[in-house]
Design a protein that fits this description.
Two copies of one chain form a homodimer.
Chain A: H1 3-17, E1 24-29, E2 32-38, H2 41-44, H3 51-58, H4 64-67, E3 70-74, H5 80-89, E4 93-96, H6 106-111, E5 115-118, H7 122-134, H8 136-142
Amino acid sequence: MNKFMRAAIAEAQLGLEEGGIPIGAVLVHNGNIIGRGHNRRVQLGSPILHGEMDALANSGRQPAKIYRESVLYTTLSPCMMCTGAILFFGIPKVVIGENTNFMGEEELLRSSGVKIEIADSEECKKLMRDFIAARPELWNEDIAEPCKTGN
Amino acid sequence: MNKFMRAAIAEAQLGLEEGGIPIGAVLVHNGNIIGRGHNRRVQLGSPILHGEMDALANSGRQPAKIYRESVLYTTLSPCMMCTGAILFFGIPKVVIGENTNFMGEEELLRSSGVKIEIADSEECKKLMRDFIAARPELWNEDIAEPCKTGN
């Protein structure tokens, strides 16, 4: 497996160990990871810190041209918020671990000119499948979907 | 002026006093402010903390139904990142202080069914006009646009 997707999975696993939602991401520029992150909804009580957003936050203040030369690796297909961020920063390529457990806004990304690669990783799929089975209410909260428990 | 837009402007002014970019927002549910925020790129070194995102972050973990009954007030037209967040959380209405200094993704919001109101506030316009004139390089960095200084 690509070492950057491995780093994104390591972030997802770190999130799981912290009691959080196992989604991770890394932002890569010229072969170097400039930001790592994972979903920290539970850990920090923040609804905006999806894995991709956390990686962007942790990349700090970068000049516009850096984003435009970067690749975002994420363990799960990006939701509309993260898609908006990818388009806003002008990130030209996104590598996605899996889109079986959640299909994000890949069509919007593609139609906006972003190159998408699907790694179709069994490891990514198992992480999310197991998590969703164990914590469906938390998963629904994270994707802002109402669920039967009144979320 | 509407008291919620006034609260968003107060957030923008707080940001300016902190040395930051003067954009503020509040999230309102059933007539109560449940999250206040302002752009904190400079203060926290975070590229994702636009005013709207900071207000969402500060609203904490809310059930999906709360967002779907809320109104977001923001001093400036929402960029693609903040638009993605508005759509992701299903916020049905956005009140925008001004869109003269920056026109965000209002068409995407409207076409996605979000109700938009433009307050066309002179106070909001002056805040941004003065800031952009004083700190053009910081403004370009915030909207992820390359500028002549190499950002």
